[in-house]
């Protein structure tokens, strides 16, 4: 008589590119979700075809209408930075799940910036503006998240003609969208009046809004906003992220390491 060997309740995870690509295609929902994240996190270029397939998945859907796997696939394609993912990400801007639209918009901006697609900025901008209008008509889930990401992506890429589509959001009912629009409008125009709209938000009673506004101020690149970031009533790690982004943007834009930037570096040192 033989004795059955009990199954290992915690079998080893195959953390190889081939293993995770197989999990993404054929695993259960949890395995597929993790595999999409892993392939992006580890920058596995061989995973791009499987991630593109996952971006059109219809099986992994929540009761609220969300597509978790698609969200992770879009994020992963952004991290991988390959232009091969652009057509699928553009198609994902028409998804009924706002979180998928948000992830796709962010990924398109990431890829364009990584690949320095200056000749394609106008075309990508037009696609993002179309996505903005599509979301304005209503989505099943997370429409505000989609609008915020689309506005931010337009601010990052700065395509011609986008200001007129973003400006109305400065008066939106959502304070988060007002912040996103202020950040994007400043990136597009360098008009201090737009960035200064973020400063009162740093004293808002809602800590989540304070954090978001602080990160928007950092991502705007508005250097005079650095003292307000350094003294805001939010966690040190959030302030650190915002100040680092402020420095990076100003240096990328050809700024010199003058007194203002040196002071920001000092604040960063204090927060580390």
Would you write up a description of this structure?
The protein is mainly alpha-helical and 272 residues long. Helix 2 runs parallel beside helix 4, helix 4 packs parallel to helix 6 (98-114) and helix 6 (98-114) packs antiparallel against helix 7 (121-136). It is built from 15 helices and no strands. It has 2 domains: 15-161, Leucine-rich Repeat Variant (Alpha Horseshoe), CATH 1.25.10; 162-272, no CATH class. The model is unreliable at 1-6 (pLDDT under 50). The chain is globular, with a radius of gyration of 21 Å. The longest helix is centred in the middle third of the chain and has 17 residues, at 98-114. Keywords: Antenna complex, Phycobilisome.
Give a quick set of tags describing it:
phycobilisome, ARM-type_fold, single chain, Armadillo, 63% helix, Leucine-rich Repeat Variant, 272 residues, antenna complex, mainly alpha, disordered N terminus, HEAT repeat domain-containing protein
Classified in CATH, the superfamily of the largest domain is Leucine-rich Repeat Variant
SS field, number of helical segments: 15
Span of the ends, CA to CA: 64 Å
Query: Structural class, from helix and strand content?
Result: mainly alpha
The CATH architecture of the largest domain is: Alpha Horseshoe
SSE order, one letter for each helix or strand: HHHHHHHHHHHHHHH
Helix share, percent: 55-70%
Largest sheet: none
Shape: globular
Low-confidence stretches: 1-6
Q: What is the residue-averaged pLDDT?
A: 92
CATH class of the largest domain: Mainly Alpha
Tally of individual domains: 2
How many strands appear in the DSSP assignment?
0
The percent range for strand residues is under 5%
CATH-defined topology of the largest domain? Leucine-rich Repeat Variant
Radius of gyration: 21 Å
């Amino acid at each position: 008589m033989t004795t059955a060997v009990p199954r290992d309740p915690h079998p080893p995870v195959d953390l190889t590119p081939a293993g995770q690509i197989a999990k993404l295609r054929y695993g259960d929902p949890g395995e597929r979700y993790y595999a999409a994240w892993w392939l992006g996190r580890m920058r596995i270029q061989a995973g791009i075809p499987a991630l593109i397939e996952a971006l059109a998945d219809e099986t992994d859907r929540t009761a609220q209408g969300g597509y978790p796997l698609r969200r992770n696939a879009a994020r992963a394609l952004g991290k991988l930075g390959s232009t091969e993912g652009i057509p699928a990400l553009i198609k994902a801007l028409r998804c009924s799940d706002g979180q998928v639209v948000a992830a796709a918009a962010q990924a398109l901006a990431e890829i364009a910036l990584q690949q320095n697609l200056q000749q394609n900025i106008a075309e990508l901008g037009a696609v993002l503006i179309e996505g903005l209008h599509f979301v304005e008509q209503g989505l099943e889930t997370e429409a505000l998240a989609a609008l915020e990401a689309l506005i931010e992506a337009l601010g990052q890429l700065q395509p011609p003609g986008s200001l007129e589509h973003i400006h109305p959001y400065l008066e939106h009912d959502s304070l988060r969208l007002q912040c996103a629009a202020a950040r994007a409008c400043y990136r597009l125009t360098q008009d201090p009046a737009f960035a200064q709209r973020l400063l009162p938000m740093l004293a808002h009673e809602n800590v989540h809004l304070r954090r978001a506004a602080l990160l928007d101020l950092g991502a705007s690149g508005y250097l005079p906003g650095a003292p307000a970031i350094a003294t805001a009533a939010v966690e040190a790690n959030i302030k650190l992220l915002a100040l680092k982004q402020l420095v990076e943007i100003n240096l990328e834009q050809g700024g010199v390491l003058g007194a203002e930037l040196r002071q920001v570096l000092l604040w960063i040192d204090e927060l580390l």
